[in-house]
Design brief:
The chain is of the alpha/beta class. It has two domains: 202 residues, Alpha-Beta Barrel (TIM Barrel); 113 residues, Beta Barrel (Lyase, Ornithine Decarboxylase, Chain A, domain 1), CATH 2.40.37. Strands 1, 10, 11, 12, 13, 14, 15 and 16 form an eight-stranded mixed beta sheet that branches. An eight-stranded parallel beta sheet has the order 4-3-2-9-8-7-6-5, with helices on one face. The longest helix has 19 residues. The structure holds pyridoxal-5'-phosphate. The site of pyridoxal-5'-phosphate has 17 residues, from helix 9. Pyridoxal-5'-phosphate (PLP) binds next to helix 9.
Length: 377
């Protein structure tokens, strides 16, 4: 297991006493730090924070101070960046499928860059032809990623040149290409493959007399949940080298989400009750699979979990246990057969690395409220 980034246990106790649980402790310093190390690892690349994993104004405000750009996918995300006063020209709208009202809403804000990946999307831009600038999204299937984002979006590489010609033939302004290699992608080779293909397509476009000037390499940068991952500088080194070699002078964009958001939040929840069933200890928390741990389902993610007493060095011997959420649904089990020291009602438990795809996909099913987010710095 990797060493988690955690606030001091005494501080966690004090914050839980003040705010109640479930609680997500948000460090905007960690947000800034993640942004900075990724910027250094990808020199010359404009980092557009993808709001999806943690669409919060506090995060956007911290990144604004760092000079970041933003990647939006819905009108609600436009509202978040607007509330923080982000310059609309620092944003792109990257959802490949849009309604007319989505295009109008985004243009009214002042963001002009959109993404398409199929011919049915193109006529939607015709009324706004003089305002919009487009990126064409490519699909590079990836079974190795935790979430393969090319399963749902992107034009097949074999159809890409034809689609590009079609868009240009309709008089639309296509500025470049985009892709997403898949989220929590543990090695960088998919980026290299994708960048190489995009270079060929840039060349084919040039033969057609079209000069593309933007390449968007998407998100996917990994973070350590249970197992360590390659430090981001090493991870990005071949990507940065390939970009420098293949795309000199081209505007480069990346859309990190998880990498910026994941380490920024620690979940603190409480034991609501316990039971002994068939020799196993069962603990029922006030947060679960329908709440902050929803990423276990949707994001296929696993998180570290520990009683606060263990962090304080006060825990007893381990017993085989089950950790469940608060709802009355039997699917709502967070950990099955996990070794834990015996806990009592109201004991606090923590999970680090809970910033990305957690609160964002949580529900208040059964009216157990979503965790409250508190900024701790
Ligand atoms: C979700 C998403 C991202 C963020 O991906 P991460 O893997 O979290 O970095 C970036 N771009 C697009 C288009 C997305 O859908």
């Amino acid at each position: 297991m990797t060493q988690p980034l955690l606030p001091d246990p005494a501080r966690i106790r004090a914050l839980a006493a003040e705010h109640g649980t479930p609680l997500l402790l948000l460090s905007t310093q960690v947000i800034r730090q993640q942004y900075r190390i990724l910027s250094q690892a990808l020199p010359g690349v404009q980092l557009h924070y993808a709001l999806k994993p943690l669409p919060r104004a506090e995060v956007v405000a911290a990144l604004k101070d760092e000079g970041a750009y933003f990647d939006l996918a819905s009108n609600g995300e436009v509202d978040v960046v607007r509330s923080v006063g982000i310059d609309a020209t620092r944003c792109i709208q990257s959802h490949p499928i849009k309604r007319d009202e989505d295009i109008r809403y985004t243009l009214a804000y002042g963001t002009r860059t959109f993404v398409f990946d199929n011919p049915y999307e193109l006529p939607k831009f015709l009324p706004y032809k003089d305002q919009v600038e487009l990126l064409m999204r490519l699909s590079f299937r990836n079974k190795e990623a935790q979430c393969d984002l090319s399963a749902k979006f992107g034009v097949q590489p074999s159809d890409a040149h034809e689609l590009l010609r079609k868009a240009i033939g309709m008089g639309l302004k296509v500025r470049g290409l985009s892709f997403h290699v898949g989220s929590q992608m543990l090695n960088a080779f998919k980026f290299i493959e994708a960048i190489g293909f995009c270079r060929q397509l840039f060349n084919l476009a040039a033969l057609d007399g079209v000069r593309l000037d933007t390449l968007d390499i998407g998100g996917g940068y990994p973070v350590p949940y249970i197992e360590p991952v390659m430090p981001i500088t090493y991870y990005c080194h071949p990507i940065a080298a390939e970009l420098e070699r293949q795309f000199p002078g081209v505007r480069l964009i990346a859309e990190p989400g998880r990498f910026v958001a994941a380490p920024s939040m620690t979940l603190v929840s409480s034991v609501m009750g316990k039971a002994e069933r068939q020799g196993l200890m069962w603990y029922y928390l006030d947060d679960g699979l329908y709440g902050s741990y929803s990423g276990k389902l949707y994001d296929h993610c696993d998180y570290q979990f520990m009683p606060l007493s263990k962090l304080e060095g006060k825990a007893g011997p381990d017993r085989l246990s089950v950790v469940a959420g608060p709802t009355c649904d039997s699917i709502d089990v967070v950990y099955d057969n996990i070794l834990l020291p015996e806990m009592e009602c109201n004991d606090l438990v923590v999970s680090p690395m809970m910033g990305a795809y957690t609160w964002a996909s949580a529900t208040d099913f059964n009216f157990f409220p979503k965790a409250k987010i508190v900024v701790i710095d």
